[in-house]
Amino acid sequence: MAKELLKGNVAIAEAAVRYGLEAYFGYPITPQTEMLEYLSKRMPELGRVFVQAESELGAVNMVYGAACTGARVMTSSSSPGISLMMEGLSYIAGTELPAVLVDVMRGGPGLGNIAPSQQDYNQITHGGGHGDYYPIVLAPASIQEAIDYIGLAFDLSEKYRSLAVLLIDGSLGQMMEPAELPEMQPVRAAYPHWAARGATGRGRIVHTSIYLNPIEQEKTNFRILSRWREVQANEVRFKEYYLDDAEYAIIAFGTAGRVALSAVRAARAAGIKVGLLRPITLAPFPGNAVRELAKRVQSLLVVEMNNGQMVDDVLANIHDQTPVEFYGRPGGNVPLADEILAEIERIVKGKLTLNGHPRDRWLDRMLTKS
Amino acid sequence: MDMLGEETIVYERPATLTDLSSHYCPGCTHGIAHRLAAEVLDEMNFRERTIGVASVGCSVFAYNYFNFDFVQAPHGRAPAMATGVKRVLPDRIVFTYQGDGDLASIGMGEIVAAAARGENITVIFINNANYGMTGGQMAPTTLPGQVTTSSPTGRDIEVAGFPIRVSEMLSSLDGAAYVVRRSLHDPKNIRLAKKAIRAAFEVQARGLGFSMVELLSTCPTNWGMTPVDAIHWLETKMLPYYPVGDYKVGPAVAEIKI
Ligand SMILES: Cc1ncc(C[n+]2csc(CCOP(=O)(O)OP(=O)(O)O)c2C)c(N)n1
Ligand code: SF4
To answer: In 3-state terms, what secondary structure has residue B168?
Structure first.
């Protein structure tokens, strides 16, 4: 298929359709709403299910019901709506069902604003809903990747009976760039053995997340964790840029990673040996890759569009062996490549330290600047 | 002693109920409501087509007693979950089984929206004037002056407001095709309740829209009464506040002959 000029939200929605999406349930919220609007026309056209729910509570529980039938199902929202969905996401995880969620993050906390942000990293990758569960989280940095990874999200979520989240920021949802959509694939014809679709000629199937006997609940917790270990062993994905001879490395995901790549190129042009590691799976986190990288470079710079959330996962993986610096723009701001370049230059020139938390040093710099 | 001739079975467990003794308290009318639903689904031969949605409350384990596919919803969200199932599988019979805390308090948004959409599902709504599972707290349906564990001096309408008459409220929605209230306090009313449940499933099978049967029920344990006193309390206290009746019978529904 040829490349077309596509808007992020619309591209994800159409890609989901072509990957066999059978049912979509959603609620309007900027900067995600185009997905809902697009699918309100597209799904009925194809005889598939679309419902504008009464709220994100409604939407996520419709997803829950549809997931019980084994259908390929999805919802999308943005930060405040995702918070409202957390109850249902925990239930879906506790029932061990596949479902796909797209979170087009905006600024916050609270109502915040509608500008691009990465504020939901902790909420999405480290839980959000109650209990021990682990969604698979994919972070594209371009519309092409968003198209590709929504397909991957369905496949992984069904393979591991797990939630899969496509985590993007508002700018990826809203911008347009050339990208190639997949061919239309048929909706599945056969359903998994656990699908509750009516007990025709068989015993009943029950989907529930309640295990009153703590021993049974514990077994379920172990089963979910074992499945997660398989995900960790097999599904870690990341991209590396200019790392072969790098003396310094940036770690950044999504849009922050994309801007960081521009900064890396500018720094390389100025003779600085810096590279970039861009996690694609935020969960499972590429901890081994980060650890190996940390051994090879003089310093790591973590860049995020928040107050420093992934940086804690980086620190947890490198055990203080390498100095880490942080640069972030929270509140719905996208860092400029020049800002990141200035950080690279500062690190190259400056004294590196293992003392204190990189977030504290960053905040002091930001507060004295403003 | 050969006074008995050949045995004829006059009463047995409906095929869609499992062979288990339930966890419901002695005298609780949840068991009657289960049996009525099962008898109707048997009569309509719907076992293989039905997917139930259990809610959070004493009936959370309803799926242990019904012998067909079941899913279990978060507190109050059963109508949304049922919507997800029904939209994907429009030719299946989908029903929720919800208590009054579940449906009329935490889940009021979901039930109103489902009814307004004319969602083609059936709701069996157990109104027992309190939260049973958590130990008898005040529910939206608790009567003025009724003592519960969270209204120890009786529901004070100045502070806690008024009970919600759910059937009356939902009947105002155009999407609701069939909304009725019945009571489980004596055999005659139980028979009428069964007929209403049958009508509700007929409405769904014909694709006529949202159907709900509210069932006035007892909770002897949390009301602190014997089962017999509880039945009497339902009849004398609840019935006047929550009259049985047909609150919405859409024109197409009125033509159904059972
Ligand atoms: C989100 C959430 N809040 C509260 C509870 C605790 N809870 C469990 S059952 C219940 C009340 C159920 O009462 P009702 O719906 O009237 O059903 P009954 O037990 O009387 O049949 C509550 C509040 C819960 N499980 N989930
Ligand atoms: S607590 Fe009340 S509603 Fe629950 S089973 Fe016992 S009597 Fe029935």
So the answer is: helix
List, for residues A316-340, the tens digit of each pLDDT value: 999 888 999 999 999 999 999 999 9
ipTM value for the complex = 0.96
A247 and A227 inside one domain: no
Kindly list the strands in the beta sheet with B50-54, ordered across the sheet, starting from the edge strand earlier in the chain. A206-207, B69-72, B50-54, B93-99, B122-127, B210-216, B176-183, B245-249
Ligand 2 midpoint to CA A213 (Å)? 20
Inter-chain CB proximity B80 and A207 less than 8 Å:
no
Examine the pLDDT at B4 and tell me if it is beyond 80.
Answer: no
Domain count, chain B: 1
User: SS3 for B38?
Assistant: helix
Nearest to A68 by CA among A103, A97, A48, A37: A97
The reported pTM is 0.97
Q: Greater confidence, A354 or B99? A: B99
Asked whether the beta carbons of A71 and A100 are under 8 A apart, the reply is no
Q: What is the CATH number of the domain that holds B84?
A: 3.40.50.970
Among all ligands shown, which has an atom nearest to the Cα of B55?
1
Domain tally for chain A?
A: 2
Share of chain A above pLDDT 90, in %: 96
Residue-wise pLDDT tens digits, B18-71: 999 999 999 999 999 999 999 999 999 999 999 999 999 999 999 999 999 999
Same-domain pairing of A90 and A220: yes
Ligand 1 centroid distance, CA of A285 (Å): 37
Query: Is residue A121 situated within a structural domain?
Result: yes
Query: Domain limits at B49?
Result: 30-254
Q: What is the mean pLDDT of residues B103-112?
A: 98
A88 and A146 in a single domain? The answer is yes
SS3 at position A97: coil
Structural domain containing residue A215: 4-186+207-234
Interface check for A71 against chain B (CB to CB < 8 A): the answer is: yes
Contact A66 B84 (CB under 8 A): yes
**Does some domain include residue B25?**
no
